[in-house]
Write a structure and sequence with these properties.
alpha+beta, Cytidine Deaminase, domain 2, five-stranded mixed β-sheet, two-stranded antiparallel ribbon, globular, binds 2'-deoxyuridine, binds zinc ion, Cyt_deam_tetra, zinc ion binding
Length: 141
């Protein structure tokens, strides 16, 4: 069974319910569809040392990658925002590490506004693994 956009968005709302956000109270959920059809859920996890906070999107990616899953087909992100919730720069960089530029990203909110974009649109001209020359440790750019 393939997971469609609406199912992935519903899953992201379920993920959001687990958000640990005592400081910002801004709960975010993400649902990441892996190539094999499995969905990895992520929520944001805050910390009294604010900078240790992990976003919902990266939680989902790190759960999958830590289980050996590194290929993905789509991700949905949801928050209680006026417009569709946009991922931060750190999450865009992580997306660019593991996803093709044309991978769909569904940005949504609790009201149901949905904006479909792609990883490449969110992070054009990304620094990627191909930019590093591992023989010399220097950038190829
Ligand atoms: O796309 C986003 C944007 C923000 N946050 C989290 C980080 C922090 O916990 C809270 C406020 O920035 O929202 C996410 O999880 N994903
Ligand atoms: Zn983020």
């Amino acid at each position: 069974m393939t997971v469609d956009m609406n199912t992935l968005i519903e899953q992201s709302k379920i993920a959001r319910e687990k958000a640990y956000v005592p400081y910002s109270k801004f709960a975010v959920g993400a649902a990441l569809l892996a190539e094999d059809g499995k969905v990895y859920l992520g929520c944001n996890i805050e910390n009294a040392g604010y900078s240790m906070t992990n976003c919902a999107e990266r939680t989902a990616f790190f759960k999958a990658v830590s289980e050996g899953v590194t290929k993905f087909k789509a991700i949905a992100v949801v928050a209680d925002t006026d417009g569709p919730c946009a991922p931060c720069g750190a999450c865009r960089q992580v997306m660019s590490e593991f996803c093709d530029a044309n991978m769909p990203v569904y940005l949504t909110n609790l009201k149901g506004d949905t904006q479909q974009t792609t990883v490449g649109e969110l992070i054009p001209f990304a620094f990627s693994p191909e930019d590093i020359d591992y023989a010399t440790g220097k950038s190829k750019l």
